[in-house]
Amino acid sequence: MIIAFRLWFSKAVSLWMKTAIQKEKRFFPVMNYLIIGGNSDIATEVIERLTTNGHHIHALVRNEEDASRLQSQGYTTTVGDATKEADIKRCVEEAKEKGDIDGILHCVGSILIRPPHALNQDAFEDVITTNLTSAFLTLSIGGKAMLRQGKGRMVFTSSVAGSLGLVNHEAIAAAKGGIEAMVRSAAATYARRGLRINAVAPGLTDTKMATKILASDAMRDAASQKIPTQRINQKQEAASAMHWLLTDAPDNLTGQVLHLDGGMANVLV
Fold first, then answer.
1. I want to staple 75 with a disulfide (CB 3.0 to 4.6 A). Which of 57, 79, 214, 248 is the partner?
2. What phi and psi values does residue 8 have, to the nearest 5 degrees?
3. Would you list the DSSP string of 196-222?
4. In the predicted model, what is the mean pLDDT of residues 74-89?
5. CATH topology assigned to domain 31-260
């Protein structure tokens, strides 16, 4: 009698767990996300948020060390260069092995603060290639995959320098301003084909990339004084904005640049 009860109880628990899992999947479907620039501080934060609900992550990273680190956490990767068309194509194809790509985050960028008279053509073109060319390749190749699906979300990384005139930011302003214009145009081009394309434009953010700018307390204080809220972004804040656009933002939101800059671009204090 006891054995029979235990057998019945075990089957009941198993059935309950199976039903619970099925219900959870109905409410929280597993999505497939591609992260271009998966080794950056902000991208790492976005990935952690996406995996909370068990979503698949495929990331393009620059070297084997970053690839091994992400693979050890259960993600798939492509080692390549975000500015190379062949590498982006290979990355998109490998991401599709998990199914349709529901969202793509372009999290590639650089910082170069120098006046035009102190820049040569090679340095300027490097900024454009790193930021704008990589964004275009992501849009072109990733967008083509999404068009075949009839849906998808794309989020690009801009900067406060893309819409606000900042001293010595001419090169990065040209690159990020180009990204913002591209996002608006692409959102119009693909609005009726199911693609939702937006960008996040952070102000100065506390990441490894900004280490030289934030090297001392005095430099931090000077930077903070230029911001209406008088503080620098944390990487978690930028990641939160990108995650929202990739997952929970309204379907009718497209062609927008979300300014996360403490009010710099729009507020005068």
1. 57
2. -65, -45
3. EEEEEEE-SEESGGGTTTTSSHHHHHH
4. 98
5. Rossmann fold (3.40.50)
